[in-house]
């Protein structure tokens, strides 16, 4: 009689019998990729909503880090109020923290951009070739929480701030820049980063050297 077949190594058994968690994650990833491609209606001029692409790119710039950093730094230099300088200095700290954290996560995960994305983004750096997480979504959530907490705004303006954060985040998928999970994680990361900023709040008492510069 033929010799009994040798048992498969444990790692091969695992490949032949993937776990429920592995199947679930693979399925969710497939759904994410499929839905993100379907929602990328402004990914190119020939897309379903290609005519709205210029507007989406304006929204993209509104959530970009450079305008926010330059605007905050300019306001910091022009401010003659100690309270305003404290808020602006902490906003600058929040924006820099956001850039560093997003770059670190992108560098670790190295998830490629969606294949339907056109690499025509406004001012990119090396890690911007990666997709996870969405830096725009992270920044939108962080700035939204910061503004709502530290600026006195009328209710209509507060609603507009929230709508801006949502529109910036949704535009990332519509432009084909990101998958949905990139944006969702970005929003969660930005929300969490605001908590870090609050815990490390810079004030004349905690960081006198910084405030001496202004």
From TrEMBL:
Enzyme kind, highest EC tier: hydrolase
Catalytic reaction annotation: (2E,6E,10E)-geranylgeranyl diphosphate + H2O = (2E,6E,10E)-geranylgeranyl phosphate + phosphate + H(+); presqualene phosphate + H2O = presqualene alcohol + phosphate; (2E,6E)-farnesyl diphosphate + H2O = (2E,6E)-farnesyl phosphate + phosphate + H(+); presqualene diphosphate + H2O = presqualene phosphate + phosphate + H(+)
EC number: 3.6.1.68
One example of a Gene Ontology biological process annotation: lipid metabolic process
Phosphatidic acid phosphatase type 2/haloperoxidase domain sequence ranges: 87-198
Alphabetized GO MF terms: sphingosine-1-phosphate phosphatase activity
Keywords, alphabetical: Endoplasmic reticulum, Hydrolase, Lipid metabolism, Membrane, Nucleus, Transmembrane, Transmembrane helix
Sections of the chain in a coiled coil: none
Transmembrane segments: 88-109, 151-171, 183-202
Protein name: Polyisoprenoid diphosphate/phosphate phosphohydrolase PLPP6
Chief subcellular location: endoplasmic reticulum
GO cellular component: endoplasmic reticulum membrane; nuclear inner membrane
Gene3D superfamilies: Phosphatidic acid phosphatase type 2/haloperoxidase
Membrane topology category: Multi-pass membrane protein
Name of one Pfam family that matches: PAP2
PANTHER family per the UniProt record, alphabetical: POLYISOPRENOID DIPHOSPHATE_PHOSPHATE PHOSPHOHYDROLASE PLPP6, SPHINGOSINE-1-PHOSPHATE PHOSPHOHYDROLASE
Family recorded in the similarity comment: Belongs to the PA-phosphatase related phosphoesterase family.
Family annotation (SMART domains): acidPPc
Source organism of this protein record: Chloropsis hardwickii
Annotated localization: Endoplasmic reticulum membrane; Nucleus inner membrane
Keyword Flavoprotein included in the entry's annotation: no
Superkingdom of the source species: Eukaryota
